[in-house]
């Protein structure tokens, strides 16, 4: 590149719409053979034996795919295995003294914690023994309401060891959200934490957990991790707590009491539940997505290897929170199954300075970084000098997940973080899919900023119109998946009917028992180009994606109408330069009362209490009416246009066309 000025490099990157994988990456990549696409297609579904072969099975499976009862597909049936054995025990001989987890707390003056595979194995065994003593049996759902502390993966793997499914609730969710999820799963055990650090403050989490337990309708045995020490003298329950009676136990004391204990990993049927993860959908009730042991673990292990190029000697970093599916699949299960070192960071990217991420990459010589577009847009805003101050040459691959990434942010990441020598994988997937579905295989395919890429090998993904016919290249349509895959959700917890309704009814012949008549609908819009690269356009249901976090408009609306003085509310997502989308609320007051700053404050508080600070509305606009169609449906599309400052187009089909201008005027006047 000699002679090329800084400016012209930028211009070249800005103009390019396709990038070849860097040769230095391809030379060493886990997957480099382009034939893999044709091979997987012709060998489907047996191609997925390759994924299952990455695991150790106690009993070999006899059938790769049982599709006799669609859409209740089953994978690797007859097989038995244990997820904690695959993540830990099998690495002990060769990698026992290598780091499994590098945990970095937010305060910079605190010692970081390294868990070797042997140490992690020991603590998982001890905690598994403790859980059993507390009464946890196979198939009992254990809830975890924990921030990014190492005891979270320990608890997940301890549950997996004894065959107890876990249900992790994001620590930023509210007490109410915890109660809803524990009630829905009939979960009688809660592992939680006294608190954690956020931008220098010690946040008191335990009081919030107790608040949540007040809304749980059965007894709950608790375990509390002491993260903050003297900084927070946290309450411990002893007997009563409103709704849920029960007592709390100190995590460290339990582990000490079981020092040296060994617990044989329970052989789980491939189709046994590994965990539940609640996620937002169209209705107010969160959906309990069920993932299984064999299919899920195969899927996240295979994709970690093929897409994230994980190797045992790597120091791999996914900066998601384990409270979301990305952390489950790509901080815990995928990387540990491959025996690599996985990094866990407690805090935010801008504490104490805006270079914290780069500081960590440099210090730990991180080889991969997998993060969200919202973070990349924030890095861009802060400026290129922060990554430039650090040696990031250890990085080999970059990844993004959670929302569409705009080409400008993609290129910034590629240039300023990856130094043009790391492929960027833009990975499309969902809580329900378990792991990645659409993205480039980084050692094989060219990258096109803005497009996630072609479907992974073995995937049958299409972009169709409203009646299911494939749309032409370049046209917007709906994403569909026509063949099952091992990592797919199996059902919604105790609600098979809703599972069929939510994901299959739209494009399937639901009376048919021919698997070819069944199509999975992820509720995303998309378009496809002539090379089969898919650009995902975003949700087509009532889900808002704020900083890569899925929020249901109905959940937010019901929180708002729960506030005294509110009669009706509509919530939409508007564009936001950093968060991707932001929440905008349009509210009708009771008795035509004037909405003022006091009510606005209560509405914001109501949303934070019901869901969490991530759902906090960016704007609250009071209006005497909402725009409605003649049949009485709220025209959210128009409210979105208002939120985005777009032209309003045709409003004549409204029952109350004048209202749109009134709302617009209210917005212009500052709400
Ligand atoms: C893994 C995860 C799923 C929704 C999904 C889509 C959006 C995720 C994306 C993407 C465009 C990508 N999404 N990855 N959109 N490009 N690379 O995020 O799961 O929290 O369930 O969200 O996120 O809209 O339907 P989840």
Automatic annotation (TrEMBL):
Domain of life per record: Archaea
Protein name: Acetate--CoA ligase
EC identifiers of the protein: 6.2.1.1
Compositionally biased intervals (Basic and acidic residues): 1-15
Organism (species): Halorubellus litoreus
GO BP: acetyl-CoA biosynthetic process from acetate; carbon fixation by 3-hydroxypropionate cycle
Gene3D superfamilies documented for this protein: 3.30.300.30, N-terminal domain of ligase-like (3.40.50.12780)
AMP-binding enzyme C-terminal domain ranges (all copies): 555-633
Recorded GO MF terms: 3-hydroxypropionyl-CoA synthetase activity; acetate-CoA ligase activity; ATP binding
InterPro entries: Ac_CoA_lig, ACAS_N, AMP-bd_C, AMP-bd_C_sf, AMP-binding_CS, AMP-dep_synth/lig_dom, ANL_N_sf
Residues in Acetyl-coenzyme A synthetase N-terminal domain copies: 35-87
Positions of region (Disordered): 1-22
Domain spans labelled AMP-dependent synthetase/ligase: 89-485
Keywords on record: ATP-binding, Ligase, Nucleotide-binding
Similarity section: Belongs to the ATP-dependent AMP-binding enzyme family.
